[in-house]
């Protein structure tokens, strides 16, 4: 993923909401990894208005984190893109989707992500990530329409729904 031309264009055009949505989606898709950090550093360097002051919300303890709370915070970060909330999301994603390093037949290392929630749902981590992205996208569409946000907000939400669906179905094939 890293710095795509779409992301660079959104940053250069000063589209704060679009950049925030792309960043939060990247956070989930890269499980808080290098792609997200690279994108965040680039955006912060180019967009002084990207980061917000924290709105004062008290966050749940790590023992109470789950995918529902992650989804709530993924929605909240679009309107309050504070260092505190971004740090929370990075920690949550890393906890809920822990990296697993395995050796391949050729002896090289391969990182995959598995949910730390041992549920019997039968869904892969890729499918869970797809569901989460699609859910956040759906909420973004509804919120964008309800609050009469610029048309880009519901459109980006729709893109997230499609991307989440594609990720879900890609996880079924693996």
Mean pLDDT: 82
Spatial separation of the terminal alpha carbons:
20 Å
Quaternary state reads: single chain
Estimate the global geometry from the Cα principal axes.
Answer: globular
Strand order of the largest sheet: 1-2
Description:
With 174 residues, the protein is mainly alpha-helical. The chain is built from seven helices and two strands. It has helices spanning 5-12, 16-29, 34-46, 67-79, 83-96, 125-146, 152-173, and strands at 97-103, 109-115. It has a two-stranded antiparallel sheet with strand order 1-2. Helix 2 packs parallel to helix 7. The longest helix has 22 residues, at 125-146. The radius of gyration is 16 Å and the shape is globular. The model is unreliable at 109-120 (pLDDT under 50).
Keywords:
single chain; 174 residues; mainly alpha; 61% helix; globular
Q: TL;DR?
A:
By secondary structure, the chain is mainly alpha-helical. The chain has 7 helices and 2 strands. It has a two-stranded antiparallel ribbon with strand order 1-2.
């Amino acid at each position: 993923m890293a710095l795509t031309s779409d992301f660079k264009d959104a940053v250069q055009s000063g589209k704060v909401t679009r950049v925030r949505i792309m960043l939060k989606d990247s956070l989930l898709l890269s499980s808080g990894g290098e792609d997200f950090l690279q994108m965040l550093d680039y955006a912060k360097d180019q967009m002084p208005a990207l980061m917000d002051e924290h709105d004062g919300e008290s966050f749940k303890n790590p023992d109470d984190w789950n995918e529902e709370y992650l989804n709530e915070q993924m929605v909240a970060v679009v309107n309050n893109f504070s260092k505190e909330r971004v740090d929370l999301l990075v920690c949550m994603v890393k906890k809920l989707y822990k990296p697993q390093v395995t050796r391949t037949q050729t002896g090289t290392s391969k990182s995959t992500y598995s949910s730390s929630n041992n549920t019997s749902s039968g869904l892969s981590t890729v499918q869970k990530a797809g569901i989460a992205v699609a859910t956040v996208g759906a909420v973004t569409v509804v919120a964008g329409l309800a609050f009469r946000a610029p048309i880009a907000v519901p459109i980006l939400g729709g893109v997230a729904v499609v991307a989440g669906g594609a990720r879900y179905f890609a996880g079924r094939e693996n």
